[in-house]
């Protein structure tokens, strides 16, 4: 039985989260797979997570908002529910080139 892309990504992120929990280094083949699936956005998202620049804010109703501290020092808001971010990179990468905000949400939510 063939796996669909969401199941492959979920398995990949689960393996990465397990490595982080165990204090191990994330294998290079996992990082390459992320880049293959999500493009260059994956590397940028991992960098933000590594720099502790992503904060998840959850409401009692279950809504989630990510605040991201950009390299300029400005804080941007990412709305997971509608795949939107207020940063200029989102406007360029996602709206013009159809990249995905899901990579930031998936990496930040699963690896942390």
Automatic annotation (TrEMBL):
Recorded superkingdom: Eukaryota
Query: What is this protein called in UniProt?
Result: Zinc finger SWIM domain-containing protein 7 isoform X4
